Amino acid sequence: MWTNWSGGQQCRPTATVRPLDDSGVSGVVRRAADRGQSVRPVGAGHSFSALAVTDGVHVDLSAFRGVTGIGGSEDRPTVRVRAGTTLGELHEELTARDLALEAPLELAAPTLGGALAVGMHGSGAGLASLSAAVVGLRLVDGRGRLRDVAPADLDAARTSLGALGVVLEAELAVVPAGRARVTRAPRPVDEVLDDGFWSAHPVAEAAVFPSAPTALTRWAHPLRVQDPDDDTDDAGETEERERSLGVTVAGATGRTALGGAVVVERALPGLVPRFNRAVSRLARTVSATGPMHRVLSSPPAVRYEQTEWALPRYALAAATRELLAALADDHLEVGLPVRLRVGAPESGWLHPAHARATGWVAVRVPRGTDHAPVLERAWRVLRDHGGRPHWASRSDWTVEDTAAAYPRLPDFRRVRDDYDPDRVFATPALAAVLGD
Ligand SMILES: Cc1cc2nc3c(=O)[nH]c(=O)nc-3n(C[C@H](O)[C@H](O)[C@H](O)COP(=O)(O)OP(=O)(O)OC[C@H]3O[C@@H](n4cnc5c(N)ncnc54)[C@H](O)[C@@H]3O)c2cc1C
């Protein structure tokens, strides 16, 4: 039995195969197609949606790891990375080569293949998703053929939901590595709902509780070489000191405090708003310096279900206010705050931030609490503000919604007909949002 990270999705694949090389993947796809079975590549299972669920064949890419080459030019370096590489491994391999992702991602566990398929993003007004960094892709298509994706098809393939094939390797644009200073600070909710907050910091995010007037925020700025703000030689030590100083209360995803809120929620749900207000009041400002991916690293304190929506950026403030009021009025406040992030417009035809500056709103419900009423309430509000759900998150999105919200869907379907004419990679979850 396969289960995803949150425990909310399960399936019993006919088989789980772990090919060791490209021809092994081609063979798996060909054999499954001959038997009329569907094929689903699976990464770290960190998606909350049913995208990785199948009763066909699961393809585990964990043998496809590591950076296989450096390319591009001195000004615009690129790296070739195998699709089963986890983001944590990718960050460390890039650091070892004095390189980094331009748009930092905070979670280590997802694989490159899974993160690209769903358009994984961080937060910064000028920062796009990991998919946007793709300059080349190699995959095995639905006929078992090894293909380098043509430049004209790249905007279909960079965020494909796994519908076009099993991605084996991606070439990513990267930047020279650098150090950054991250600050975690409490701020008035009104301040983070103002555009000025998001334009003041290249990396920024906020977390807000329906009942609290204070948001928990986090922002980061790159440091120049020998910047006077870079007051430590050892990022690891700084991060440790930061944790022991109480960042757990101050952090936008503060671990202990949020874990505590979840315990309160299970035992005494009526006390959640009061506990959340106390967490926000206790928050203190703390800073740390180090490589960007390390200072942003924030492993989750608890397991949860999530819905996250990409809204037009101009709608972020109004939608958030309406959402917070709706959750408070309907007594649906939980121990995890609503998370706000921003991102640049994406070229990927199926990326939720396609062609528009985006404000991301995520609602999380700890495991053990009935998530349906909270998530359903959030869907109603966020959909009404022009939202498109993150493909990895839970939603009630339909193929009709995709057709209305994604103007390049017809182009994506044309590419899909070429790469997977027999729909070897189809699943019910894909059919629900992309059609047959
Ligand atoms: C605690 C937590 C924090 C998160 N934080 C963020 C965040 O900050 N930003 C964000 O955007 N998302 C976030 N997510 C969601 C996360 O980005 C995605 O779930 C994750 O990127 C998927 O990677 P995975 O390896 O787990 O893929 P899986 O969930 O296993 O698979 C996801 C999809 O990718 C496809 N796929 C996997 N490998 C391949 C391949 N080689 N070729 C083709 N298709 C493939 C699968 O078929 C499936 O359709 C978070 C999730 C969790 C649980």
Explained architecture:
The chain is an alpha+beta fold and 436 residues long. The protein folds into 3 domains: 2-60, Uridine Diphospho-n-acetylenolpyruvylglucosamine Reductase, domain 2 (2-Layer Sandwich), CATH 3.30.43.10; 67-176, Uridine Diphospho-n-acetylenolpyruvylglucosamine Reductase, domain 3; 179-389, 3-Layer(aba) Sandwich (Vanillyl-alcohol Oxidase, Chain A, domain 3). The chain is 33% helix and 24% strand. It contains 15 helices and 20 strands. It has helices at 22-35, 87-96, 112-118, 154-157, 189-192, 195-200, 235-250, 255-267, 272-282, 292-296, 316-329, 372-384, 399-405, 409-419, 428-434, and strands at 2-3, 10-11, 15-17, 39-42, 57-60, 67-72, 77-82, 99-100, 134-140, 146-148, 166-173, 175-176, 179-188, 203-208, 214-222, 286-291, 304-312, 338-343, 358-366, 388-389. The strands form 5 sheets. The protein has an 8-stranded antiparallel β-sheet, with helices on both faces. β1 (2-3) and β2 form a beta hairpin. α11 (316-329) runs antiparallel to α12. The radius of gyration is 21 Å and the shape is globular. The two termini are 26 Å apart. 53% of the residues are buried. The model is unreliable at 233-254 (pLDDT under 50). Flavin-adenine dinucleotide is lined by residues 5, 40-47, 51-52, 61, 83, 106-107, 110-111, 113-115, 117-118, 120-121, 161-162, 166-167, 300, 390, 392.
